[in-house]
């Protein structure tokens, strides 16, 4: 059994967080190699053609090449997560679908140039297709001119969301699932604050991470998010090799979905218990066994 771990040219062996994954896969008889996605793939092997399964990992340069990335995903014979899931989740307008399905989501509007229904108080404008918080702007209350200029500069649709101020001192809680089952969680400090810096690759903002033990409300919300998403997609939870549910506190303290990451999320192995890579490897092997 052979798996390709898809990444991008700037991170030929991933970002380091997945460093223990190849060994965990090898322990259970699964060979793995890194693969740079896209038609310009340049590897010493034909991993892209002979892998039984391609697993999306650090393909973080896709926002500027979204159509090409989707085309490549659709060309891969067996992809995790599946290309149909990627297509839905790549555009953050999926949050509107989840709102309509009854999921507690940060209030979200999709805006194009000319939009004028700005929230009261601070708010965020960010591209609907993006990774690593690039292109996200925290806008001061009433500064509609700056918001409109940023929206126009993005060159495409954007999400507009009221800023949830408690995230500044509580941060985000990221709950990670493998094969539809909860694995572990970690926290991420607020990203849209003055001292945030960009990684040298330019692909993402550097995150301040820590271990987490989510409470029952967060666990329940994350489970509800996965149930709703798989219902909308018409897939089983087990069909999702990985999922990361990012929650932040709303104004009343209850957890709200900020993002559901089903394409290429960092899975926080460095902050998880030592068994997390083995759980991921087991989910990969289960996906391989389920192949037709």
TrEMBL record:
Alphabetically ordered keywords of this record: ATP-binding, Nucleotide-binding
Domain ATP-grasp residues, every copy: 95-289
The keyword ATP-binding appears for this protein: yes
Molecular function, one GO term: ATP binding
InterPro entries per UniProt: ATP-grasp, DcsG_Biosynth_Enzyme
PROSITE patterns, alphabetized: ATP_GRASP (PS50975)
Coiled-coil ranges from the UniProt annotation: none
Lineage: Bacteria, Bacillati, Actinomycetota, Actinomycetes, Pseudonocardiales
Protein origin, superkingdom: Bacteria
Record protein name field: ATP-grasp domain-containing protein
Keyword Transport found: no
Species the sequence originates in: Saccharothrix violaceirubra
């Amino acid at each position: 059994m052979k798996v390709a771990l898809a990444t991008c040219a700037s991170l030929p062996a991933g970002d380091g967080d997945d460093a223990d994954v190849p060994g965990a896969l090898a322990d259970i008889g699964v060979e793995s190699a890194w693969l740079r996605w896209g038609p310009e793939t340049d590897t010493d092997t034909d991993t892209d053609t002979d892998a039984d399964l391609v697993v999306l990992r650090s393909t973080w340069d896709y926002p500027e090449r979204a159509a090409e990335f989707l085309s490549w995903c659709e060309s891969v014979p067996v992809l995790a997560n599946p290309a149909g899931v990627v297509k839905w989740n790549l555009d953050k307008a999926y949050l509107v679908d989840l709102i309509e399905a009854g999921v507690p989501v940060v209030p979200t509007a999709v805006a194009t140039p000319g939009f004028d229904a700005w929230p009261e108080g601070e708010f965020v404008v960010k591209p609907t297709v993006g990774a690593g918080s690039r292109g996200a702007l925290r806008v001061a209350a009433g500064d509609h001119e700056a918001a409109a200029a940023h929206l126009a500069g993005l060159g495409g649709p954007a999400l507009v969301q009221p800023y949830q101020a408690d995230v500044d001192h509580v941060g985000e809680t990221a709950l990670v699932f493998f094969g539809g089952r909860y694995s572990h969680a970690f926290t991420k400090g607020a990203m849209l604050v003055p001292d945030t810096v960009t990684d040298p690759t330019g692909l993402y903002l550097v995150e301040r991470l820590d271990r987490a033990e989510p409470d029952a409300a967060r666990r329940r919300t994350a489970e509800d998010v996965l149930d709703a998403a798989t219902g909308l997609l018409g897939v089983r939870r087990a069909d999702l090799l990985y999922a990361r549910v990012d929650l932040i506190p709303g104004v009343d303290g209850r957890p709200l979905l900020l993002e559901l990451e089903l394409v290429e999320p960092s899975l926080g192995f460095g902050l998880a218990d030592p068994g997390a890579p083995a759980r991921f490897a087991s989910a990969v092997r289960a996906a391989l066994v389920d192949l037709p």
